[in-house]
Amino acid sequence: MHPTSTTVTLIGAGLNGPLLATSLVKRGFRVEIYERRPDMRLVPVNAGRSINLALSTRGIHALAEAGLWDAMSQIVIPMKGRMMHSVTGELTFQPYGKDDAEVIYSISRAALNMALMNAAEAKGASIHFQRRCMGLDVKTGLVRLRHEETAEETTIQSEVVIGCDGSASAIRAEMLKLNRFNFSQKYLDYGYKELTIPAGPGGKHLLDKHALHIWPRGSYMLIALPNIDGTFACILFLPFEGPDSFAELATPSDLVEFFRSRFPDALPLMPLVSENYFANPTGFMVTIKCSPWHVEGRCLLLGDAAHAIVPFFGQGLNCGFEDCTRFLEILDRHGAEWKLVFKQFEESRRINTDAIADMAIENFFEMRDRVADPRFLFRKKVELALEAKYPQLFVPKYAMVTFHRIPYSVALARGVVQDRILAELCDPIDRVEDLDWTRADQLIRSQLSPLEQAS
Ligand SMILES: Cc1cc2nc3c(=O)[nH]c(=O)nc-3n(C[C@H](O)[C@H](O)[C@H](O)COP(=O)(O)OP(=O)(O)OC[C@H]3O[C@@H](n4cnc5c(N)ncnc54)[C@H](O)[C@@H]3O)c2cc1C
User: Fold this and answer.
1) CA of 15 to the centre of ligand 1 (A)
2) How far is the CA of 436 from the centre of ligand 1 (A)?
3) From ligand 1's centre to the CA of 413, what distance in Å?
4) Which of 33, 35, 76, 175 has most ligand 1 atoms within 8 Å of its beta carbon, as the pocket-test mutant?
5) How far apart are CA 365 and CA 70, in angstroms?
6) For ligand 1, atom 29: residue with the closest CA
7) Ligand 1 pocket, Cβ-based, cut-off 6 angstroms
8) 139 pLDDT band (50/70/90 cuts)?
């Protein structure tokens, strides 16, 4: 507990805001959250907000620290690997990890968001809905708010403001006006559309529910994640323009024909594919990097507001939750010395959020086209064989990011070394049995230190 009456103002009751609020209230702070949307527990969730998320070790750790994982574990479905669907309907299963403990969890974004808001309120945080942050005076801490229904404008004074307001952060927009604020944003030429596979008779899942399903098609793909109600949340990733793009799918018959020829085994499972496609917005994907994340101990950016990444490593949320873990560790060390806490937080975190941003882009290409390549699948098998023999030295990059909490920057650097080793070992062979274990031993022992030393 911190002997302080400081009120911390959080902008945004998405995923990071309420999680952070829960832990701040526990530490004795008063927390007020301002959220521009209506309360999703009372009004239906907008299309595009119900996409599922893959939750993994970093996110689970943060939830457990906040005392929330036991409750959340009731609303997740473990996914043991990727199930690839070829155009001819063949299925290939590729496990994510070396055993059943190394799984990722599918969770509904809306269900998670509501559970986090309930938890924050139960602890004592206040959430003010339909209050859009219109700006912040970073010198005085005056926050301007507008009521989304009445358009009434108000101001509040806050000692500390944390922008958890996502990739289009209003707080970051304020910081952009300052001298020497670094900012970059890079959009993918790809967008995404949310679709659904309904539950079968008796609420049964129509596909294996313990897999993340992927229909990789070179320059585009469809994925599906299971929900506990028997449905699958699907995401269609397509280029905005050009062949096989959103621009080309202008009518229901274009769409059905596209699915019939590209995803023939998925189409019969999606009776509402046209309705979903034309009703739901097309989302975009952006990588945002900026610095500094804080101004004078007065305001801080956290989560997507500080570092939005593309979704292909399933880490945006996990990374944001890890921000919360790190922030609270530093806060516990220094107390409400905000300037110092914010500075140390950014210093320890930005190198890692930059690393996961780069790995997420790289994974886009892996999921989109390489998962269907037999040589890639062979390398994955060799990776698992090497990990089985050298569990502390050779851990696949996917596993380092997803099942460990070693810094992302370390995972990135070790991944580069491991890729070089894998290329040398795999290029001359086609079967795991033919692996040159003597050479593998030399390369691994000389080039990789034990994993725990790296963390
Ligand atoms: C298609 C897709 C799939 C994804 N899949 C995964 C995945 O599998 N695993 C994973 O870990 N991550 C995934 N992510 C990333 C994840 O969704 C984000 O990293 C996460 O939502 C970030 O949380 P946040 O709280 O920082 O921002 P958000 O969840 O975006 O929340 C921000 C909140 O702030 C509010 N807000 C915005 N502006 C204002 C304002 N001016 N005033 C008041 N309130 C405001 C918003 O309404 C919102 O509620 C995915 C993202 C996408 C787009």
Assistant:
1) 6
2) 46
3) 27
4) 35
5) 35
6) 14
7) 11-17, 34-37, 51, 53-54, 132-133, 164-166, 170, 192, 235, 283, 303-305, 311, 314-318, 320
8) confident
Question: What is the pLDDT of the chain when averaged over all its residues?
Answer: 94
Q: Please provide the size of the chain in residues.
A: 455
Q: What is the pLDDT of residues 265-280, one digit of tens each?
A: 999 999 999 999 999 9
User: Cα–Cα distance between 209 and 107 in angstroms, integer?
Assistant: 12
Helices marked H in 124-272: 170-175, 252-262
Residue 190: how many other CB atoms lie within 10 Å: 21
Q: CA dist 389 to 98, 285, 383, 400, Å?
A: 11, 38, 10, 16
Burial label for 313, CB within 10 Å (0-12, 13-18, 19+), is buried
Residue percentage of the chain with pLDDT more than 90 = 88
pLDDT value for 352 = 98
**174 pLDDT above the threshold of 50:** yes
| Phi, psi (deg, nearest 5) at residue 283 | -85, 160
